[in-house]
User: Fold this.
Amino acid sequence: MNPTSGLQLLLVAGGAIAVAAVARRKGWPAPLLLVAAGLLVSPLVPAVPLQPDLVLFVFLPPLLYSAALDSSYLRLRDASRAVALLSVGLVLFTTAVVGFVVHLLLPGLPLALAFALGAIIAPPDAVAAVAVGRRLGLPRRTLTVLIGESLFNDATALTAYRVAIGAAVGGTVDLLHTFGQFLYAALVGVAIGLALAFAFAWLFARTRDSLVENTLMLLIPFAAYLAAESVHASGVIAVVIVGLYLGNRMHLQGFGTRLVSDAVWKVTDFFLETIVFALIGLQLVTVVRGISGYAAWQVAAYAVVVLLVTIASRFAWVFAVTSVTRLAARGGGRPGPQQNVIVSWAGMRGVVSLAAAFALPPEIPERDRAMLLFLTFTTVIGTLLVQGTTFPALIRRLRVSSEQEQYEDRLAEAAAQQAALEAGLAELDRLVREEGEPDEIRKQVIDQLREKSWRRSLTAWERLGGGTGQGGAETPSTLYRRLRRDMLRAEREVFVRLRDERRLDDEVLREVMAQLDFEEAILER
Assistant:
């Protein structure tokens, strides 16, 4: 990367963060606003090329790893059939349907390249859909299916893409060899992911240093992806397997590791996603300039048809498969039509599709390459802006909600807090008996421990009532948090004033601020 490209990317990052900040302040979906801003700015600024290697080897691994780390292995296992049918079955179905339709629209385009386009635009990116769904309270199972699909569908699509490109360049396709490639990529990707997961789990068990562990975690997705890709296996699957395994064992790490990890990956996700979605919109001029030899109405018609076929394929697959094989997870009940519509409409495409299109080999004729890139771009933009902007209204219209799940979660949390409280107090009683009759100071400490335990348990039960008591009055825990936050603000002002008066060193200020920040973080949670 030359200095000019680096400066361009830096300016894109700064502008994207500013746009995302506005979106967060207004409560708008940041990915959609970033894409729209990129489209508006693209004709006004120098072209910002989207480099496939930057997306596939720098942006994709940490985003996949973070999503896997934050996912529930148990919920994904329960929804494994639905996830597999979407991340494998639907990707291949979309590849075939789009490929045949594009070949009919453009008879001069080789069938292998038409299938390559199908593989390019087959995998949805659930970032925007999941962000909206969480904010609007989609049921947990629906979110799990969408997240699971987005974790694994890139592996299927990229493998299908390689096969189609190989056929386009080499001229032949061996179905048995193709199936062997799929099987090899998946199994070796799983094996590499598990091997690295076990190795890092063993290492973390002996490190016990939150800074070192989180630094290593930043390297894990790149190590897994490169290790798998170097032997022509699926780097996507390797990264996801490592993330799911280590995420399921995160409770074994120290509290410092978990606190730092949560902050590190939130910042990483925000930074990379803002750049990625801004880059999508900024490709407008680059993509349009490459089209030649077609009338404007022809190009527009091709784009609309491919977009509609892509959307319709997802609806057809979801409803057909649900009715035939009971898409619902084991013991999870059968999803209703509303949830099927939600899953079908949550098919927004993302930057992986664009990166694959930009990575088309030079052996592909320039005219065909430009058309594939244009159709990919219009499908990505179309799904993001059409489906993305209407997704919140669709959720509200269908009245799909997780209110009952949220109530059950709060009830389960309160019961668990009660059980944990009893266990903690029993352990405290045992320690007091072993250490003998406490003196006055120790008795005060013990009483404080009991009071803190009871307050935490009380907070969980109060949350069932939304934090208010009878007649809308504040509950004791809500009142405690509000007053304590005001006290913390006053305490901070004193520490800062003493620092400004040179009566307190900056290093001491940082230490006491950290203590107050941790206490306020506990109050917020």
Remarks:
- Confidence is low (pLDDT under 50) at residues 327-333.
